[in-house]
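Provenance and format

Records in this collection were gathered into a single text stream. Each protein contributes a sequence line and a token line. The two records reproduced below are adjacent in the stream.
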Amino acid sequence: MYNLEELILEYVSGFSDLSPLKKLTKLKSLHFENLRKVKNFDGLSGIKSLRYLYINGTLDWKQPIENFEFLKGLPNLEVLALIWVINKTAYPAFEPIATLKKLKKINIISNMFAT
């Protein structure tokens, strides 16, 4: 599956480590919804081909995200969507977003983060 460009994982609870995804060197799009055992997304850092990242919990269970440092390792990211998530980092949690020079769109549901 090394040529895989898009991956959608929904309602998965069998793993917590995302680092094997780094082997997918052509991966352009990741859609995560309700990954019950994942809270650390550092395993995504270094996927240079990634353009689109969608992380979503659900209305009754918000996806925890330990920190946003992994974003620094996604230099070609163009679209970032964070829906129904819980931020585990103190202000300024989104500072790593400033390193994303190719970012074109940020989609964050209202009232998800204190500003």
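Adjacent record:
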Amino acid sequence: MDGDQLAQFLRARRAAVRPGEAAGGVRRVSGLRREEVAERAGISPDYYTRLEQNRTSRPSAQVVAALATALAMTEPQRAHLHRLTGHQVQPSPPQVPQADPALLRVLEQLTSTAAHIMTDLGETLAQNRLSVALFGDASLYTGASRSTYYRWFTDPAAREVFAKETRDRETRARVADLRATWVRRSDAAARELVELLRRESGEFEDLWAAHEVSARFTERKRIIGPTGPLELYAQFLSAGSPHQVLVVFTPVTGTDAAERLARIDELPDPAERSPGTREGGPRHP
């Protein structure tokens, strides 16, 4: 344990907590008092004081996790705290999925290309109009079907939005990406999704056994849209949260994808189209 660095880091984080994050409502001073940190972490004020003064032994992993929560640490700060105390980095448990505000602000500005926010387990949290037009309204799915990973391997219609010649590559990429997520998260939600897919899809089970691992950052895709095929780059962007990405589909230069997207944007709102039409009904982002 690096006691000096730990003490300095705790003092800095305590002073940086905004008044609104502190217990007790409106405050006249910035930051938290040592007693408040101790109370929120469930430890004694004396022990916390000794941590800030580098006068005690290494705290347990449970105490470190409690301190990270008490001091409203971000994921990188939480990881740094674990490293300073010599403990294995433990990711914070994912909360009820809600779109990350930073990603949502970016999504709201994207009007000329399709984009949506997804969890790393494939659940769509927010879509713009063009995303709904291309892939359908993902909010209509419930249970395991909320995950695009699950739909891809259990519903043949899930693959229809992708050009046939690209589906094998897309299938392998999804399995490799899910394995990277499974290792990174190592939590019940990831394990349950993988075990469910292994039980219900022989194809998934075979590919899972290959142990391929990758992270998808930018991929070229051929999407079958309401106005015909589109050549698009799928770019996977994050903003602090390791459990969410903003997926942005941008036209490939030298193709007519931008023109086709503009024509889609001129179609009636997806919610107003009749279910079962080419442009309507749930599809599969």
